[in-house]
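W.,

You were right to be curious about this one. When I first looked at the sequence I had no strong expectations either way, so I just let the prediction run and decided to look at it fresh. Below is the sequence, 158 residues in total, followed by the output.
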Amino acid sequence: MTKTNAARLLDKAKIPYELIPYEYDENDLAAAHVAEALGEDIARVFKTLVLRGEKVGYFVCVVPGDTEVDLKKAAKAAGAKKAEMIHVKELLPLTGYIRGGCSPIGMKKPFPTFFHLTALDFDKIYVSAGQRGLQLAIDPHRLIDYVGAATTDLISEK
């Protein structure tokens, strides 16, 4: 298994993690499929979303895989009046990552990053390692500290 840029950055920072490969389906990149492939609770499998905030520019939200980001809450966290998801075709040029393989670690440039507060409920969470079919299992406290993220409520009520 080849190391991704995200894994190399964690190695350099001496942050422990585990790389976990899984079978992915090009037609089903949903976090629910990832959680099922890993045999893990979907609440531990976080997806990385990139948004654009009015007057504040791009920012990143990392939320549990079975939730939807609340755009008003995300905008407020970023200090914007409004926010919207970026178009998928903007993802690779902006972050260096493709849909289904976007990691909060090692984007082309650092963006303000916000994790949903439930990340701190776990000793270990899963985020993309930077490519489809590979997840990082990592201590959320270490990850949040490393990427300089804040934690807040980011999701829509079910």
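Here's what jumped out at me. Residues 18 and 137 are 5 Å apart (CA to CA). And, maybe more interesting for your project: Residues 43-152 form a domain with the YbaK protein fold (CATH 3.90.960.10).

Coffee later to discuss?

I.
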